[in-house]
Each structure stands twice: as C-alpha cells, then as structure tokens.
Automatic annotation (TrEMBL):
It comes from the Bacteria. Residues 46-57 have a biased composition (Low complexity). SUPFAM superfamilies: FAS1 domain. This is Fasciclin domain-containing protein. Gene3D superfamilies: FAS1 domain (2.30.180.10). PROSITE patterns: FAS1 (PS50213). Residues 1-35 form the FAS1 domain. InterPro entries: FAS1_dom_sf, FAS1_domain. Pfam families: Fasciclin. Residues 44-70 are annotated as: Disordered. It comes from Romeriopsis navalis LEGE 11480.
Length: 70
C-alpha cells in the first residue's frame, strides 16, 4: 500500500504508530492504544462494578503480631 506523510493506518480505534517491526517470530506493528475485542467490551459493560475492598493486614491475624522485630 503506498503511504504518504498524511496517511494514518487505523485498526479499530487504534492508530499504527510504527509499522513492520521485525520480531523473532514475525512482524509487529506498534499501536497507540490497547485493542479490546467488542465481545469483551460488551461483557464488561454489562457487569456491575465490583465493590472496592481493602485486604485485611496479615498482622491482624492471631499469632502474627509476635513475628514483628523487637
């Protein structure tokens, strides 16, 4: 495909920043954002957001406080 300076190749909503980069197993193209399949986006949008949680510190467990350096 002939390219000119004002030509920008797009893949979905991502722009190809660097094309034809040689890799050990083929050729890759560097893009400016992550491409997520539409099916996954639809599934993610349909799920309710998870409630934020804070992990309980290990020191709250019985017997762990004596493991601290004195």
């Amino acid at each position: 495909m002939p390219e000119s300076p004002d030509t920008q190749v797009m893949v979905n909503q991502a722009a190809v920043e660097i094309a034809d980069v040689a890799a050990s197993n083929g050729v890759i193209h560097a893009i400016d954002q992550v491409i997520v399949p539409i099916e996954l986006m639809d599934a993610a949008k349909s799920k309710a957001p998870a409630a934020p949680s804070t992990p309980k510190p290990a020191l709250d467990k019985p017997g762990n406080s004596d493991k601290l350096p004195q």
